[in-house]
Amino acid sequence: MTYDMFYRRSIDEPEAFWSEQAGLIDWHEAPPQILDNSHPPFTRWFAGGKTNLCHNAVDRHLADRADQPALIYVSTETGDERTYSFRELHGEVQRAAAALLALGVRKGDRVLIYMPMIAEAAFAMLACARIGAIHSVVFGGFASVSLASRIEDATPKVIVSADAGSRGGKVVAYKPLLDEGIRLSSHKPQAVLLVDRGLVPMERTAGRDHDWAALCAQHASAGVACEWLDATDISYTIYTSGTTGRPKGVQRDVGGYAVALAASMKHIFMGEPGGTFFSTSDIGWVVGHSYIVYGPLIAGMATIMYEGLPIRPDAGIWWSLVEKYKVTGMFSAPTAVRVLKKQDPAFLGKYDLSSLKALFLAGEPLDEPTARWISEGLGVPIIDNYWQTESGWPILTVANGVERKDSRFGSPGVPMYGFDVRLVHESTGEELTAPGQKGVVVIQGPTPPGFMQTVWGDDARYVRTYWETVPGKMVYSTFDWGIRDADGYYFILGRTDDVINVAGHRLGTREIEESISSHPSVAEVAVVGVADALKGQVAMAFVVPRDATAIADAAARLKLEGNIMKVVDGQLGAVARPARVHFVTLLPKTRSGKLLRRAIQAVAEGRDAGDLTTIEDPTALQQIRDQLGQG
Ligand code: AMP
Fold first, then answer.
1. Which among 18, 156, 259, 599 is most buried, taking Cβ atoms within 10 Å?
2. Which CATH number fits domain 503-627: 2.40.330.10, 3.40.190.10, 1.10.10.60, 3.30.300.30?
3. 286 lines ligand 1 (CB under 6 A)
């Protein structure tokens, strides 16, 4: 079958199409209904069917591949390296599930997971899936204020965490950040379950804090059966940034997600049972959920969980893992490749990479020099794929598992089956059908399996945020600009909103502004994303200080800049720290007081500031130019 036929069928006959794909997973009770689109935009898949993500990721494989590697844990930070077979993983997950049950966790309860890249994080996620608890993994690089807002929103019964993570050989203590996050939140968890890696001493709160190893040991031979869940029950929430300071809990189901992942592993990632998948993401991001933990395991593959940098001990570390574990599919981000590109290219030739079939890259635009460099170095197809936390799996790419299609430099590819992707005019909402026209990338419902169900606890916000932004149409907005060529390949041109993408990490400029504003010397602040050769974008802040003497001389400016960065580090985490803080006496605004963020961004990138007819005081932009030495 050609991909075009495959795709058309998914859009024209979604029930028949997805009913077939549903056969890729195990059902305890087959779904009596495939698609329920009676309350758009809330699409329900496989309603009435019963299944379990953990069963499909682990238990299902015990019959045929119990002794095959399932989870390969490698830390170049601590030197730990351990392979868990499916049988061993089954044991670990049951112990973790028993520990959660002992702490009172039941179906539908939330468990917040704030952990470094250690095997226990995957055990905890799978244990939640097993008992029907809703996990909410918070990226370990986030700090106390980010954590507090997520605790507040998810209201977890239990939080699973660890003493510390490690980055580049430097220990990053988690427990003090967690304690502060809990202190700042009005919701308090009943219990905290802590993995003690022995990296840094932990203060424990009596009655609340429990030890992972001790509690699991109490349930050493526990048998915890999978809870058969409705396909439309909630599997997890994952927080993502938008244009407000308040993160959105992207909520996903059980059955649709399992089917979407199984299908994508086959059709997009060309995963075969017995192969090894190596995704270099983090469990705190959606890629980590879909393609470190659930996707590869559902496909019966071993998955590598890697804690460490791509260049430590040297830039050959990832390739040495490909050789050692015969990695068949690898998934990373353009930033990581750009980091490797700055190192000695000989590292690519040092290892036997013949097992590798393709390298998938996602999370940010893939520039042509980076794509060419890695493609020539590896000698395998480089497959860009475009998606979002909200979609759960790729929206645009090429499905080589269905039909081989060439990738095009600069384009992530064509719409994936199930995604009715369109381009619309930003202000009229009119559909743009001619090639080469720039518009907003939108998705026409029903959304496919695996797509978010709603914003956790806030259906109205889901509709308002995503489905009511295009005039005259109820379509899902990706908030990305795009262009389509004559052959249907899309090109993504950046966000239409105030979300920035730093090294593949999605950050809201408002969140960073709120954090900077909490510094007592700051009167006003604007944060914009500025193009960066390595990270894609970096955050840059323009601050109006309360008192001009705070920036009287270079030393004072440097000190305040450092202090502001420290505030962001402590509240949001180093990922959100602006690369530079510049000081000005006023910010460019419209006469009605609206911040001219786009003009600031343009100037910061050395571009033309665009239409300035509404600007209150043009000297504000001149100050920014002066600050950037463009005077
Ligand atoms: P996240 O939800 O963190 O995965 O971020 C999603 C956003 O990252 C998208 O809306 C895009 O702006 C950007 N993005 C993800 N993948 C790609 C890609 N392959 N090419 C260009 N931009 C991408």
1. 259
2. 3.30.300.30
3. yes
